[in-house]
Fold this sequence. Notes:
Distance between the termini: 69 Å
Order of helices and strands: HHHHHHHHHHHHEEEHEEEEH
Enzyme class: hydrolase
CATH architecture of the largest domain: Orthogonal Bundle
CATH class of the largest domain: Mainly Alpha
Keywords: 4Fe-4S, DNA damage, DNA repair, Glycosidase, Hydrolase, Iron, Iron-sulfur, Metal-binding
CATH superfamily of the largest domain: Hypothetical protein, domain 2
Strand content: 5-15%
CATH topology of the largest domain: Endonuclease III, domain 1
Protein name: Adenine DNA glycosylase
Number of helices: 14
Helix content: 40-55%
Number of strands: 7
Pfam families: HhH-GPD, NUDIX_4
EC number: 3.2.2.31
Amino acid sequence: MPHATPAALSKRILAWYDRNARVLxxxxxxxxxxxxxxxxxxxxxxxxxxVVAVAPYFLTFIKRWPTVKDLAAASLDDxxxxxxxxxxxxxxxxxxxxxxxxxxxxxxxxxxEEEALRGLPxxxxxxxxxxxxxxxxxxxxxxxxxxxxxxxRMFAVTDPLPAxxxxxxxxxxxxxxxxxxxxxxxxxxxxxxxxCTPRQPACVLCPWLQDCDASHQGIADELxxxxxxxxxxxxxxxxxxxxxxxxxxxxRRRPESGLLGGMMxxxxxxxxxxxxxxxxARDSAPVAAEWRPLSGMVTHTFTHFHLELLVVAGRARTPExxxxxxxxxxxxxxxxxxxxxRKVVRHALAKAY
DNA sequence: CATACGTGGAT
DNA sequence: TATCCAAGTAT
Length: 353
């Protein structure tokens, strides 16, 4: 069966959106454009991150920093602390840079053109198109994982991702309307999130069911095809839970780029495939101490490797020589500690006292 | 074009 | 337990 015209398809999905749009804290009602600052902030947070995870962070951020100028004036450490737990911390560093650029060079006004947005830190093809469409009503071709899936199924594209991305974008471009482009993009993303889901899609609820090639062929739940991902190796490290006489714990800031860049950590050895023994690890210790291994292990899975951390506890002999920050136990919650390091803290508090 | 980059929930 | 997945970007 041939597809309906693009105009008919967009009309149908917009009607579906008018009835089914999810109410989200960063979203304007159907038919309206949203605050560009809210759209930008939410889109950065939503990169590879679920709506459920983002919502409380978004509300915290806009309450504490109501405008992009407020965010630009904040310290990077405050932003990293507020971002802690959300993951992909380069987003927080780029968020700060982007806010400062918009505040300083554009008086706090976000660009409304896709190309200008695309040049800002942390804004790639998807986010530039999303902001242009959702915050400014520009007819940009918005392509995210949801829309890729919807389009792959509509046209029964069986070639695997990521190589087929340009083809999917070309097909999507042919459907994108010039009227209500922001609602259209959000409608497709909502459709992908709630109906055209990765597993067990609810095709009977889909406004595009009669036009969907994959559904007709009974292969909707198999698309889009993806290349197999490489196996995750395991890396090991040894973390030093270091106490001062007054009970403060030694923290250290990680390098500004790379994994957990700019975040705080419990000092540790490098993370490598081979396990560490204590004698060897002592060279990495932040300060001299008698180290006592704690029972058990802290495990954490990152995107591309598993981590096993043995935690050793010790009292610093010469705390004044330690390189880092002595933090009282009740102040740990206010530090920019990523989840893996909060696991180390929890483990140490459970085992070392 | 491939890889690095977090986390938590669902299956 | 293992794997997949979520509104991707930078290099």
